[in-house]
Specification:
- With about 150 residues, this protein is mainly α.
- The chain folds into two domains: about 1-45; about 45-145, Serine Threonine Protein Phosphatase 5, Tetratricopeptide repeat (Alpha Horseshoe).
- The protein is built from seven helices and no strands.
């Protein structure tokens, strides 16, 4: 007596593709889960990854290479998603460097950006003094005073 595959349930011709498709689906879902897990983890560490730009900016600033320091700080701000207090601190630093370079017009842009985060920024008093100094220089009637030192 021959076994009829339809009497015992589903035939092997249907079972094998279903099992293969199930395994492929599970593998794809596992790969997707792993990819999502790594992308979440890497985005959390991304600001740490670019911390070297800020460190290089600090070193350049301390050596008197102001334009190069500004470039590093701006790259740092462009590449990272840091909290508002840190962003304000870096923007304030850029504004101060522009003041040291006697360029209050450009410095005010960065100082005002830092001011937007004033509620969480610890150096708000110093920031206000820098803004007032630059505004006084810019509003001065003498063209020679457009730059602050």
């Amino acid at each position: 007596m021959e076994d009829d595959p339809t009497k015992n349930g589903i035939s092997y011709k249907i079972k094998i593709p279903i099992i293969i498709l199930t395994l492929v689906t599970l593998a794809a879902m596992g790969a997707l889960f792993i990819k999502i897990a790594f992308s979440v983890n890497s985005s959390e560490n991304k600001s740490d990854t670019y911390q070297y730009l800020r460190n290089v900016g600090d070193k350049l600033k301390s050596k008197g290479l102001h334009e190069q320091a500004i470039d590093q700080y701006i790259k740092y701000l462009e590449k990272t998603k840091i909290n508002t207090a840190s962003r304000a601190m870096v923007a304030h630093t850029i504004g101060q460097i522009y003041m040291e370079l006697s360029n209050c017009q450009e410095g005010l842009i960065w100082l005002f950006q830092a001011e937007e985060e004033e509620t969480t920024y610890h150096h708000a008093d110093e920031l206000k003094k820098n803004i007032d100094t630059c505004l006084a220089k810019i509003n001065s009637l003498e063209p020679n005073n457009l730059n602050a030192k």
